[in-house]
Design a protein that fits this description.
Elements (H helix, E strand, L loop, with lengths): L1 E9 L9 H20 L3 E9 L4 H14 L3 E3 L4 H13 L4 E3 L16 E3 L4 H14 L5 E6 L2 H14 L6 E5 L7 H9 L4 E5 L2 H13 L5 E4 L7 H4 L11 E5 L6 H11 L2 H4 L4 H18 L8 H8 L1 E5 L2 E4 L11 E8 L5 E10 L3 E2 L1
Parallel strand pairs: 1-2, 1-3, 3-4, 4-5, 6-7, 6-8, 8-9, 9-10
Antiparallel strand pairs: 10-13, 11-12, 13-14, 14-15
Helix pairs in contact: 1-11, 2-3, 4-5, 11-12
Length: 363
């Protein structure tokens, strides 16, 4: 038999480490599936995991570790900055990568980021979606609070373009390492802003929500996919502070055989069931697996990236039907518009009760 190594970049440290177990669990489910499929052909896959740290520098080191380990392709990273840092190292070595969660619009540039694919839509689409949600919920005098990293600035630009820079009550950027949001929230209060749009990750988002409460902010809070999961509330002193926050994230697919099978497998694993972008991590792994299978029946010297592109034409995945553009992008399935609901016992759920699409807006 033959063993093929696939790399997996996972943010085991850094601001979204809370989600790393979910990404890893989803990838492990995919690996099991691939190895059952490969068993009859004498082909087995091994996953080599490296920490991407949600940073370009950490991910570049992780990528080199994966190259040294002999991987043929890499699934990841999660954070856009990490993906950019890893791509520089991987593409130089001729190794393709598929991100399961990086949404920065700049990644669509195939010349700047060669051999790059992703199974999540660019934030060039999520910005207008989130703006439509703010309008539908009568969000007024909007204060935009965003991290100035690759994810945050790309998404913030997209939202600002849709909302109109002149229409913002305040636009407050902060370093992703920020932990004290007293002065940032003070700006929101001083400008008498009526609502806040958060483009953040779980840890900083939670700290901002707590500081808004501490300064007696009573307006509506909106957020993007970086906070659209119960993980946002987990680190809060009082998780019920999440109650009523509205956030967008890429919508799940119309159910299909693969999405239903994955949902059952994922639901049986605590880490996976509690995660975000788990179906996407699963799909990215499976697409690489199919491409490797295809390589054995393809002309010698066919690049794996060409086979990934071919597999990703109408690929029916757990997170939707994916068709890669020449730049490795997908159009997505629209966005879930969800609300955080706190129960009497202090538990919080994030419920997708509305939907946004490019064609139909909010329904």
């Amino acid at each position: 038999g033959m063993t093929v190594k696939i790399g997996f970049l996972n943010p085991m440290t850094g601001p979204i480490a809370v989600y790393a177990p979910g990404f890893g669990a989803a990838a492990a489910i995919a690996l099991q599936t691939m190895n059952i499929a490969g068993w009859g052909n004498g082909l087995q896959f091994e996953m080599v995991m490296a920490d991407s740290g949600c940073s370009g520098d950490a991910a570049a080191i992780g990528a080199q570790t994966l190259i040294d380990a002999g991987v043929v392709a890499v699934v990841g990273a999660a954070c856009s900055g990490a993906t950019m840092g890893a791509n520089a190292v991987l593409s130089a070595a001729g190794i393709p990568m598929i991100s399961y969660a990086s949404t920065n619009p700049g990644l669509s540039d195939a010349e700047a980021y060669p051999l790059f694919f992703r199974v999540v839509p660019s934030d060039a689409i999520q910005g207008p979606a989130l703006n439509d949600v703010v309008a539908a919920d009568s969000g007024s005098d909007v204060a935009l609070m965003y991290m100035t990293n690759d994810y945050g600035s790309g998404f913030a630009d997209s939202f600002t373009a849709a909302h109109g820079a002149d229409n913002l009550c305040a636009s407050i950027g902060y370093e992703e390492t920020t932990t004290d949001f007293t002065s940032a929230v003070q700006q929101v209060m001083d400008n008498s802003c009526g609502s806040v749009v958060l483009i953040s990750y779980a840890a900083d988002g939670a700290a901002i929500v707590e500081e808004l409460a501490a300064q007696s902010f009573t307006g509506q809070i909106f957020g993007g996919d970086g906070v659209a999961e119960e993980g946002l509330c987990a680190s809060m002193s009082d998780p019920t502070m999440c109650d009523g926050i509205v956030a967008t994230k890429p919508a799940s697919a119309t159910p299909n055989e693969r999405s239903m099978a994955f949902a059952a497998l994922c639901g049986a694993v605590d880490d996976c069931a509690a995660g975000i972008y788990t179906a996407e991590a699963f799909d990215a792994m499976i697409i690489v697996g199919f491409a490797v299978f295809a390589s054995f029946s393809s002309p010698e010297g066919t690049p794996l990236s060409a086979l990934i592109s071919a597999v990703g034409q109408g690929f029916v995945g757990a997170s939707g039907v994916h068709t890669f553009t020449a730049g490795g992008d997908v159009g997505g399935n629209g966005y879930c518009v969800g609300t955080f609901n706190a129960a009497g016992d202090g538990t919080v759920s994030f419920d997708c009760d509305r939907f946004w699409s490019l064609e139909g807006g909010i329904s």
